[in-house]
From TrEMBL, chain A:
Pfam families: CbiQ. It is a multi-pass membrane protein. InterPro entries: ABC/ECF_trnsptr_transmembrane, ECF_transporter_component. The chain crosses the membrane at residues 23-53, 65-83, 103-126, 239-257. This is Energy-coupling factor transport system permease protein. It comes from Caloramator quimbayensis. GO terms for cellular component: plasma membrane.
From TrEMBL, chain B:
Belongs to the ABC transporter superfamily. It is a peripheral membrane protein. One of its GO terms (cellular component) is ATP-binding cassette (ABC) transporter complex. This is Energy-coupling factor transport system ATP-binding protein.
Automatic annotation (TrEMBL), chain C:
Belongs to the ABC transporter superfamily. Pfam families: ABC_tran (PF00005). It comes from the Bacteria. The keyword DNA damage does not apply. This is Energy-coupling factor transport system ATP-binding protein. GO terms for cellular component: ATP-binding cassette (ABC) transporter complex.
Length: 258, 265, 281
């Protein structure tokens, strides 16, 4: 079954942690990096994230995610290395092109921060089923309707792509060229998008009726089939996050008052 | 020359699961029904005829053209396929231009396409609704539009995928008429369907697909007498034939009309 | 007491002029199997939606008369409350899958979570519904990975778990292959045997004749007749309403094989009467 999810099935303690705590982890790590803008702190955070990913046994899956942003990261390094306004000290040169230490240091900080944020997000998406995350949020007060929309999109979009395939076949059967020259592709736009829109409108209306029949708009307080597995670790994690943020604020304040 | 020739056709979407497992068939002008359970490979088979899929092994020759060597668009003037759900194709805001879309694509000029479309719409009985928006019409009428839009392309071969799904008695009769008319114009009509009575009343030849193979092939009344094989394919004979069996009669009639005609003295 | 009472029901969709339901009245007793027949556009689906309250609570429009389920007027209630009494299964199994659940088991839970059932009760009902529909073995599968027939039985299980005592099925087998439809018919028959009132719209007249206690014949928004299958299919004006008799009835009509003015409508009964007829002639 195709589903829009990067979730990796593993047996690890990280997988057991409540989804909300993984969201809080992302928040905490971003906050700390803002409060303490030093490269040492960013590296420390990154090491922690990488260790957690290693613990969750999903570290290999992180590489494609980082690769995805690789080109942007490289261009940041080059641009900052060449043109940063504070550039003074030449670090090395390739032919006539000079790379400066200040710019390189600055870009290193950005790159490490970006990688760290990516890792923190990866920790969430690789170790949490999207449906679990959404259910967790609904339990904590997110509107069940919004929750439904979020979780159904993940499954219904892959289903729509298969409808799209049928529509493409139906129009090709009527002699429509969908490949080759750009002009062909542009011409094919309406014959393809028209039925897609109509089909999803019809499907949406039918599904809306089916949901109503299953008490979707019920005023009763919603219950959940799955039990929450909130552990001691989960509750202590929240304090750890708060403590980490407070500590970093104290550190920052100490620097200022000096 | 046969219109369609299929030699040792194999097909699979993925390596581990073969959908069609060696099919050899020849189609002449006899109208043909393809029946069988979902998953037996019927839809995959007609997609291969249409050139939407290419064989993993073996050949499909449509009117002398090997589908491997032609694009879907190249084959479109020879073989037409009406999809199950008319909503998968309709996008124009009036019936006539919807039906003209195919003919224009295969290179007919404006006036010829219009001519052909009007003829097709007359055949399906929608000549009075040519300026209507297709989505103001009923699902049954939209089904007829989708049939007309293929008929208008004037192809030698027309395939219908489940034309009777969700249709009432009157619409089914209409579709039966259209098939008989097409047949009388010398076209090869091939239809996938689950409706055994519709098959018995409409088609000369019937193919039974089962697990990627052709289990039965022959004249429709012959096929519906093969109780054992039908059971294997999870199919039941038409109602008239069921009554004949239950009455232990020597002769099996597959349609109500034949039963009545034969027994009335 | 009558389970469902429909009185002078009239309805018109918004922005249209035509009455889709035009002065409809009938009563259904508890535990009956009611077949609804008529050509496309006769108003069958709209009538079903009116019994569940989707008309006029979901689809607005001009509405007159009343529909009572267990004495409660649906138009003055709300769909969630009615769904505990009346469930509905639609034509297309695919659009009845919520899409928000990853397993068959969780899918059935959807409605139960909405009505706020406790976990124990929920699990009992899900197990029961899945077993009843014969799909317990698929409980850990993704709903979208089921075949059409299995998916349609899942839709019924989702409704059954809500424990309504009326289930309406609107052409539940039209998208299915013969085996898939047989699975669905069997499942529905089991529900009827448990005392659930069944209302089914269906084009396969042989099936309607086999299962129904009474048949409601509709045409152009009106009820033409509401009677036993034998009486309905013995009428000689069915063609006028775009309806045809079961194959067996057509054969017996051709030879005028009848018993106290009524033609047989099922295979067994037709066979019996043909044999008797042959002995006499």
């Amino acid at each position: 079954m195709k589903s829009l999810s990067l979730y990796q099935e593993r047996d690890s303690i990280i997988h057991e942690i409540e989804p909300i705590n993984k969201l809080l982890y992302i928040l905490t790590t971003i906050l700390i990096m803002i409060i303490v803008p030093s490269i040492k702190c960013a590296v420390l955070c990154m090491i922690i994230s990488l260790m957690l990913l290693l613990k969750a046994n999903v570290i290999k899956k992180v590489l494609p995610i980082i690769n995805f942003s690789f080109i942007i990261l490289i261009s940041i390094i080059i641009i900052q290395g060449l043109f940063n306004i504070n550039n003074k000290t030449v670090l090395f040169n390739i032919g006539k092109i000079k790379f400066y230490k200040e710019g390189m240091m600055y870009s290193a900080l950005i790159v490490i921060r970006v990688i760290n944020i990516l890792c923190a997000f990866a920790l969430l998406v690789l170790t949490t089923k999207p449906s679990d995350l959404i259910e967790d949020l609904v339990r904590r007060g997110l509107s069940p309707k919004i929750g439904y929309v979020l979780s159904s999109v993940l499954q219904i979009i892959p289903q729509m792509t298969s409808t799209m395939g049928t529509i493409m076949d139906a129009q090709r059967s009527r002699g429509l060229e969908t490949e080759g020259k750009l002009i062909n592709r542009i011409k094919a736009f309406f014959p393809l998008i028209g039925p897609v829109v109509m089909n999803s409108l019809i499907a949406t209306r039918e599904r809306a009726m089916a949901l109503e029949i299953r008490a979707f708009s019920s005023k009763n307080k919603k219950t959940f089939l799955n039990e929450t597995k909130s552990t001691k670790l989960d509750s202590s994690l929240k304090y750890i996050f708060i403590a980490a943020v407070i500590l970093s604020i104290i550190w920052r304040a100490a620097i200022w008052t000096k | 020359m046969s219109i369609i020739e299929i030699n040792n056709l194999h097909f699979s979407y993925t390596k581990d699961e073969e959908i069609l497992k060696g099919i050899n068939l020849i189609f002449d002008e006899k109208s043909t029904a393809i029946i069988g359970q979902n998953g037996a490979g019927k839809t995959t088979f007609v997609k291969l005829l249409k050139g939407l899929l290419k064989p993993t092994w073996g050949d499909v020759i449509i009117d002398g053209k090997n589908t491997k060597e032609y694009t879907v668009a190249n084959l479109a003037p020879t073989i037409g396929l009406v999809f199950q759900n008319p909503n998968d194709q309709i996008f124009k805001n009036n019936v006539l231009s919807e039906v003209m879309f195919g003919p224009l694509n295969i290179g007919m000029d404006e006036s010829k396409a219009k001519d052909s479309a009007l003829k097709a719409l007359k055949m399906v009985g929608l000549e009075e609704k040519i300026n209507d928006n297709p989505y103001d019409l009923t699902l049954s009428e939209r089904k007829l539009i989708s049939i007309a839009s293929i008929v208008a392309m004037n192809t030698k071969i027309i395939i219908l995928d489940e034309p009777t799904i969700a249709q009432d008695y009157i619409s089914k009769e209409k579709i039966k008429d259209i098939i008989l008319k097409l047949k009388s114009q010398g076209k090869l009509v091939i239809t996938i369907t689950h409706d055994m009575d519709f098959v018995a009343e409409t088609f000369e030849r019937t193919l039974v697909f089962c697990e990627g193979r052709v289990l039965l092939d022959g004249k429709t009344d012959y096929v519906f007498m093969q109780d054992e094989e039908l059971k294997k394919a999870h199919l039941e004979p038409p109602y008239a034939a069921q009554l004949c069996r239950k009455l232990n009669s020597d002769k099996i009639y597959i349609t109500v009309e034949e039963f009545i005609k034969a027994n009335k003295r | 007491m009558d389970k469902i009472v429909v009185e002078n029901l009239k309805y018109k969709y918004p922005l249209t002029d035509k009455l889709v339901l035009n002065d409809i009245s009938f009563k259904i007793e508890k535990g009956q199997f009611i077949g609804i027949i008529g050509q496309n556009g006769a108003g069958k689906s709209t009538l079903c939606q009116a019994i569940t309250g989707l008309v006029p609570l979901f689809f607005k429009g001009a509405y007159g008369g009343r529909v009572l389920v267990d004495g409660i007027e649906v138009a003055k209630s709300n769909i969630s409350d009615i769904s505990l009494k009346v469930g509905m299964v639609f034509q297309n199994p695919f659009t009845q899958v919520t899409g928000s659940k990853l397993t068959v088991y969780e899918e059935v839970a959807f409605g139960l979570e909405n009505i706020g059932l406790n976990r124990e009760e929920m699990k009992n009902r899900i197990d029961e519904a899945l077993n009843l529909l014969g799909i317990y073995r698929f409980k850990d599968r993704n709903p979208f990975d089921l075949s059409g027939g299995q998916m349609q039985r899942l839709a019924i299980a989702g409704i059954i778990a809500m424990q309504p005592d009326v289930i309406i099925l609107d052409e539940p087998t039209s998208q299915l292959d013969p085996q898939g439809s047989e699975e669905v018919f069997k499942a529905v028959w089991d529900l009827k045997k448990r005392g659930i009132t069944i209302i089914m719209v269906e084009h396969k007249m042989e099936k309607i004749a086999e299962y129904s206690d009474k048949v409601l014949l509709m045409h152009d928004g009106k009820v033409i007749d509401f009677d036993t299958p034998e009486k309905i299919f013995s009428r000689d004006d069915l063609m006028q309403y775009g309806v045809i008799e079961p194959a067996y009835t057509r054969i017996c009509k051709a030879f005028d094989i009848k018993d106290s003015g009524l033609y047989p409508v099922t295979l067994d009964r037709a066979c019996e009467m043909v044999v008797k007829y042959n002995e006499h002639n």
